[in-house]
Every structure is written in structure tokens, then in C-alpha cells.
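New to this. Explain the following:
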Amino acid sequence: MTTKQGAAIRDILVILDRGDEQRSAKIAADLARQAGAHLTGLAVALEPFIPTYTIAAAVPADFLATAREQSYTDAKEALARFDTIGQQAGVAVESRLGESVSGDGFAAVVRNAILADVAVVGQHNPDKPEPLREALIEALLFQAGVPTLIAPYAGSEDFDTDVAVVAWNGSPAAGRSVRAAMPLLSMAKEVVVVIVDEGRPIAGEPGADIGAYLARHDLAVTVRTIDNYPGGSGEAILSFAADARASWLVMGGYGHSRLREFLLGGATRHILANATLPVLMSH
């Protein structure tokens, strides 16, 4: 499957996990295969982070050296697994190792992401947590400004493009997310725009503008307005996506600076924590 004329994904960056599963790399490789894109795997070696308020005594230098060496070993092992995944998927891959030190804002990640068409990163897995995962996602969205596909830690290891759900609230941020998603949306067989009724007055027909925009891009689009849930719009969106058998979800990366300060607050946090399908976000 390839994207329609006028849309192109040619460079994909995936942030490699330390674990053996490498689910995000497999999803990225499947996307690269479908899009005919080059795939870069970035393994990040993290300098040990020891909060100063947790200890009274200095951390032994040999401990820090050992931890740093282990971080590099983990990164190199992740790169070896990534090369195998690329070979199995039959896609062109490039392996990179970046170093991140405390307070640098994931400069290596940002540097490698700014020219990617899409970045792929794994969702936070509470059972197998990756270091500073939320901060890393923040760096991709807010510092690199790259559309970021968040791969769920459970479920399929393929990227099925067929049915896309677009979470729409008519905001500029939502508009930017849709424009950023167009190369991927062009690969979908069906696009469903979902609007959560939060009780605010809306001029005209809800979703008529986004429906017309997507239709002019030759997409098969349906617009649905749904009731809000007691648990919030994030829960409502994920429930709708499950009922619609959605393959993936598009939504804006709303916020000022940090993920926990998103303008949609709980809705975004709920989706990031509970999504069982890939979520494409942008800011």
C-alpha cells in the first residue's frame, strides 16, 4: 500500500525501547514498509539521573560509571534487535545511538527528529517502564515539533491504516494535527471524525468544515457527534474508537509546555495512558 499522489512519508524515526519486544520498532517498520519510507532507529543512552533530594551522601563514582556503561550496553543491544526487525520487514534502516544527559532536554532526540516526517515512540508501559518516557514524548512534540505516533504497549505489532478516527474540537491545534496527519490519512480506507458533545454551543453543523476539508482530499469521511462520558472526553473518544474498530487515532498535542499541563488535561492524559491503538499526535 502506498500513499496517494501529493502525500509522502519518506523518513520515519523510531525511538527504540530497551526491552526485548521492541513493539514500537515493529510498528514503525510496518509503517515504513507500507509507505516506502526510510526508517531510522534511535537508541538513547541516558546518563544516570539521581535526584539530589533523595540522598544525603555523594553517589560513588564507580556506581555512576557502571550505570552509564549499562545504559550504553542496553542501547547497543536495542540497535542490534532493530536491525533484525528491519531485515524481517524488508525496509531500509539506519541505526543511530544518541546520548542524553540530565538537563539537556533530550537534545539528541530533538536533533534526530527535526527532519523526520513522523516519529514513533512506545507508550508508557507501567509493567516495563522506560526512563523518562513522558519527557521524551514531550520533547518530540513540543521541541522537535514532529508528528508523533505513540505505539501501544499491548496489541498488534502491525500498523493497520484502514480505519482512522480523528478527534476534532475545531481548535487551531486540532487543525494542525489533521494537516500533519494527511500523509497517513491518505493511506486510510475510511476516516471517521468524532466530536464529543461537551455542551458548548457550536455555530452551524458540527464537523461540516473538517468533513468538507477531508473530502476535498479524496478521503472517504464520516462525521459523528457523540455524548460525553462521566470520565471525560478521553474516555468517550477511546470507547468510540473501539466500537468503530478503529485502526489508529489522530488528535492534537494540546498544551503549554508539559504533557501534564495540556489544555485538554485529563482527556489527553487518559488517552496516552489507556489507548490500545496507535495515536498520532502533533502540536
About this structure: The chain has two domains: 11-151, 163-282. Residues 61-89 form the longest helix (29 residues).
